[in-house]
Amino acid sequence: MFHPSPTPIAIRNALLLLLACAAGYVDALSYIALGRVFTANMTGNTALLGIALVGGEGQAVIQSGLALAGFLVGAALSAWIVNRGQTDVVWPPAVTVALVLEGAILIAFAVGWRFASDSSPMPSARAVLIALSAVAMGVQSAAARRLDVSGIATTYITGTLTSLVTHVAGSLRGAGVIVPKRKPSGPANHMRPTGSAHGAGLLATVWLVYVGGAIVATGAISRSQVFASVFPVAVIMVVIATAAISFREREKGSDTFS
User: Fold this and answer.
1) CATH architecture of 13-177+190-245
2) Which end of the chain is more exposed for a tag (fewer CB within 10 A), N or C?
3) What does the pLDDT look like over 236-248, one tens digit per residue?
4) Of 218, 250, 253, 256, nearest to 96 (Cα)?
5) What is the rounded distance in angstroms from the CA atom of residue 138 to the CA atom of residue 76?
6) Among 72, 73, 71, 93, residue whose Cα is nearest residue 83
7) What stretches of the chain show up as alpha helix (H) in DSSP?
8) So where are the chain's domains?
9) pLDDT tens digits for 94-103?
10) In this predicted structure, what is the pLDDT of residue 157?
11) pLDDT tens digits, residue range 25-59?
């Protein structure tokens, strides 16, 4: 029986789901083991920072501040990488380059975690791990944003949920969702999901896999503290390898979306 090959858009969507899973995992890992701080979700981390400031919790302020600063540094580095390349393809090669950077940072995080897990992490070791994971998540956030899939954010789940509810509400009232107009940047803009069931399904799945990543992290920490940091590295490596193979030809024009 003939099985058609997955389209570039289907591959891209699957890779976005893997990125969301990795982000959920890292967020749970950092919150449970690195002093109750988020390193992927900066909305929650900013709230924790405000709470720590009011409560005069110096260590918590430092940790949340490190996470925020690291995320911004990572996002800036990634933005510099991904905005220097093709704009009219499903998956720009520069996005893969940015994810290679994320993978390298996550490997450094895993190595640091391995040594820190031999005993209770000292404040300095914990600070390094927080900074590394936050930089990695910042890189991922800007790289995923570069794909320009409306409503999809692998680390900003609040925005993903808002887009999901908007899609569902538009479907219930029997009308498509109005997507804000943007300056055309090539055929890639035609890939953004609108008020269709397909778009809502993708948004819902992003949320579910993010939750799934957090669940897996919780189980991994309870079973093996030493190897708990390996999972996100493996996920990012799968994304990098798949993207490099699937999008190596850098197709352009309408044939990319057939």
Assistant:
1) Up-down Bundle (1.20)
2) N
3) 999 999 999 998 7
4) 250
5) 8
6) 93
7) 8-33, 42-55, 58-82, 93-116, 123-146, 157-172, 197-223, 230-246
8) 13-177+190-245
9) 999 999 999 9
10) 78
11) 999 999 999 989 999 999 889 999 999 999 988 88
